[in-house]
Amino acid sequence: MIRHHSLSCIIESEGRLDQTAASQLDIPRSVFSLASCTILLNGRSAKKSAKVKVGDLAAIEYDEEVFEGLEAEDIPLKVLYEDPSILVIDKEQGMVVHPGAGVHGGTLVNALLSRYGDDFASSDDERPGIVHRLDKDTSGVMVIARTASALESLQKQFASHEAEKHYTAIAKGIISEMHGTIDLNIERDPKDRKKFRATDRSDRGRNALTEYSVIRLLPGYTLLDVRIHTGRTHQIRVHLKAIEHPIMGDPIYGVRDPRYPEATLMLHSTSLEITHPETGERMRFESELPERFSRILDRLR
Question: Catalytic residue at 83?
């Protein structure tokens, strides 16, 4: 279940916006890092790190995921690695990571509750085990924390960009530069709250950084290796659309190609590198491209 929050306060002391407002509103500071969080300072969009002074008006809106009442479901998972601290899976396309509007079952969280039981759920009632997310239509490597300490460690790695994430994507059009960087903030689309858009205005949205390298040029398309340094919702999809190379088969940000009606979102999380939260060992996990990629690539060749 998704619970929407809309809060505001008059700032009573100087400092960072997130630190000051979190203390006054009695909410976790992590709220300001949620993808759903929008921040206004004196009526204008602001970053969580903005400096505030006494008398400023801070207002935030965010969605909270409430997992109370979730049922365990025996859903098979493709496991790449598992130990008492972490689980690494190869998520299938079509699996939703957590419950949301209109989705109450069949999610990864339901599968985790079945796999690990009530103790796992009680370790973090709001986000049991979820460190990062993949869109429903994105497949590939994903890590889940099995303990509260592992969750804290992995969340810090993702927030500090210590975790290294690579994706493979088929982008529309020919990208002539072999390497490129997209440094554009991402904000919600005011015309459609379910979508996001890129903006070159630093005072709007949240910073997002994406790197890409060309793997192969194909007829009318480009096969890319993509590395993201931030984890914004729909980041790769929005950034590639912003440079006029949307992902093939993207039902939200792309345009269907009638020559390939079978194409679904051609985006796959191919590798993830993290530091193990308990042993300190640097670990890399990889996932082969799924069959849907093989079929399309064979046709494009």
Answer: no
